[in-house]
Amino acid sequence: MKVTVVVRTYNRPEFLKEALTSIQLQTHTNWEVLIFDDAASIDNFTIYNNFKDSNLDKRIIYITTKKSHDYSKIVG
Questions:
Q1: Pair 68, 41: CB distance under 8 Å
Q2: pTM higher than 0.90 for the full model?
Q3: Domain boundaries of the chain, sorted by first residue
């Protein structure tokens, strides 16, 4: 069974690196990762590239926007 892991991030490269490291260390090896980055920083893109380069046999998709929508805020 393939597991798809979805990671959302916004201006938190240290969290992104930690989350991707955690995924990589799992014992289940049949996985793919979808990264949704709201207005990506160069740091996040670099982390993604390093992760992808070290997991060439995995499907890793990176989606970003040019303008921040700050989906982390609750509207109410």
A1: no
A2: no
A3: 9-64
